[in-house]
């Protein structure tokens, strides 16, 4: 089966199996380059991006520019900021922010997308960025520890199901991370992540909770019921920064059982 994957300035013909799949662009789907360029190139916010066949890239560039501009505005970045870009794809968000910050660290599961992101950083002459390939739940805990001395802001742009709870736990423990922007194409599926960011500390959830500050929907998919939701979370602040929330057990539940019954502590939402 032949698939036309480019524009007039960047034609590409790839062949793949004829088996029908729900998500035909998953990494690992065998493809053969037949003719034309091996990559698509797209301009976004004054930057040029190389895009491989398996790499994620927003399909609506003008609307993506609107989304990334709002992220830049809400993040309140300065020259001392460090950005942790989780599920960074080809590096679009991190690279769009790189000129305003001290450092950008991106994490992405797709190896092709990581290679694209590194090429994109080089082609756009941005040297304060680095990209790591792997699962977010495996990489984020170590990276937030490595960035513990930085003025850290996180950008989370996960797949529809949201992030593994290990990622949220690591972010909660990183007290130097005061502001977080979550991009979700399915807020209902990511609700467990939102709850875990904001729940009170417990023996299992360490760190000061976040609170949602504001949200906006950006219509990247006109004439469909889908959109991207951007939510800004900030750490709960305390007067003079002298108070800290103490771990709390869930409130006692009264039940008709015998007095000797005990209550189990509520755990985290299951991983998405």
Automatic annotation (TrEMBL):
Return any one Pfam family short name: tRNA_U5-meth_tr
Q: What is its EC number?
A: 2.1.1.35
Name the keywords, alphabetized. Methyltransferase, S-adenosyl-L-methionine, Transferase
Q: Which GO terms describe its molecular function?
A: RNA binding; tRNA (uracil(54)-C5)-methyltransferase activity, S-adenosyl methionine-dependent
Q: Where does S-adenosyl-L-methionine bind?
A: 58, 108, 157
Instruction: Please name the InterPro entries in this protein's record.
Output: SAM-dependent_MTases_sf, TRM2_met, U5_MeTrfase_fam
Which region ranges are annotated with the description Disordered? 239-272
Specify the domain of life of the species encoding this protein. Eukaryota
What residue stretch is flagged as signal peptide? none
Q: Which SUPFAM superfamilies match?
A: S-adenosyl-L-methionine-dependent methyltransferases
Q: What class of enzyme is it?
A: transferase
Q: Which reaction does it catalyse?
A: uridine(54) in tRNA + S-adenosyl-L-methionine = 5-methyluridine(54) in tRNA + S-adenosyl-L-homocysteine + H(+)
Gene Ontology BP annotations: methylation; RNA processing
The active-site annotation reads 185
Q: Which family is this sequence assigned to?
A: Belongs to the class I-like SAM-binding methyltransferase superfamily. RNA M5U methyltransferase family.
Q: Which PANTHER family match?
A: TRNA (URACIL-5-)-METHYLTRANSFERASE, TRNA (URACIL-5-)-METHYLTRANSFERASE HOMOLOG A
The protein here is known as: tRNA (uracil(54)-C(5))-methyltransferase
